[in-house]
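Work Package 3 (structural annotation) set out to generate three-dimensional models for the target panel prioritized at the project kickoff. During this period the team completed the workflow that converts sequence records into discrete structure tokens, so that structures can be stored uniformly alongside our sequence database. As a representative example, we reproduce one entry of 486 residues exactly as it appears in the project archive.
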Amino acid sequence: MLFNSYEFILLFLPGTFFIYFFLLGKRLATGAKGFLVFASLFFYSWWNIAYLPLILGSILFNFVVGSSLSARSGRERVSRKAILAFGVLSNLAVLGYFKYADFFIENFSLVFGTSAGLLDLVLPLAISFFTFQQIAYLVDSYRAGTREYDFLNYAIFVTFFPQLIAGPIVHHAEMMPQFASRWNLARNYRNIAGGLFIFSIGLFKKVVIADTFSVWAGNGFDVAVTLNFLEAWATSLSYTLQLYFDFSGYTDMATGAALLFNIRLPANFNSPYKARDIQDFWRRWHITLSRFLRDYIYIPLGGNRRSALSTYNNILITFILGGLWHGAGWTFVFWGFLHGVAVVVHRVWKQLGLSMPGYLAWFVTFNFVNTTWVFFRANEWEDAIRVLGGMTGAAGITLYYKLEDSLPFLRDYDLSFGDVFTDIQGGNSTVSWLIICLLLVFIPVNSNELKDRLVLNNRTVLFSVALFVTSIFSLTRLSEFLYFNF
């Protein structure tokens, strides 16, 4: 079930909200929690009920392993290490089977010249997110960082529908105290207002902004045979903005929906395109994934505690694995590698005491991110090369034909005039959308800041209603969230 669907907005969300608080009002806290788990599993199964046993089995397995790690039974440390290793490897094996089996079979066949058949597995929804979330839980249990042993509460922690499908990747310690707090068992009208406010912003981001850019990005990457200079840049920038407004829009909707139930999800975005260096970008983009990669991969590898060379290796490994987590393809691996290299270069730059003006630093950072998103989006290497080639002007530069009379001398520099953005089915509105939405991500405050500054008044209500109504009328073009694929 999609957040941007009539079923979710008009039926599932309000129905779940009212039944949950009705049960709480009858002092049936256990029943309310059980209902919330049931509703979340129903939400998950709406996409494909065939994978319901997978998430149920994952929840039961990890709860048993986590409880074993947390129990004070006098086991030797080696035994607890073995339990942890078994739990983590089992999770990775399931994730690897569904997400990477065909990738490894295809590459094995390519290297060794065999013709092994692919499994053609359908990726279970959210498997990357709930797998990472539970691996973190196991590691925290091993470190004696968990205090929750109730299965129902653990099931809520994993299945809570606002964050189940595409994150944020939450920690056990930041969620379970909220479910256990008696202050969260009653309706909080300020939270309800804030939740609807932030949900409306996220819905508008997704269905009005992101889905508009998806047309131009999709045509540029998947349909167009060649791209001139302006078309290629419009393609890359369209995807850069589509990805941001799609994923941050989902996060806003998740945050808003959770707030209705008095649950505060961790921030996942903080104006990432305002970053002035690549390290700052990763402090702002998909914050919970960055936190996971740091705490459960980079630091266990040794972090920056050893030599500089070891630190650089750890950074590269972490980012390559981060790229592979996003998808089973060499373009994802290469994207992760490029970001790892950029972070290493940034660290060396800082160690040398070098700097650059703030606006130049932002310009370099944004263009690096925009360019590397090309590999992230491309289905094949050829698609990435075609878009990047167009961005360099390799396929020619075509300017709007109405400029020909005032700028005829440009023909002497191999520039041509004609219809612009034809191959991506764009037009004059494409430029307007790009300019306006780039300004939106560069200048104003972000959703988190708006939520924290929220003042309940007529202007806020009118703003929320306007965004919500506009979005509702745009739901005729339903589309999945991009991160469902990861």
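The longest helix spans residues 77-112.
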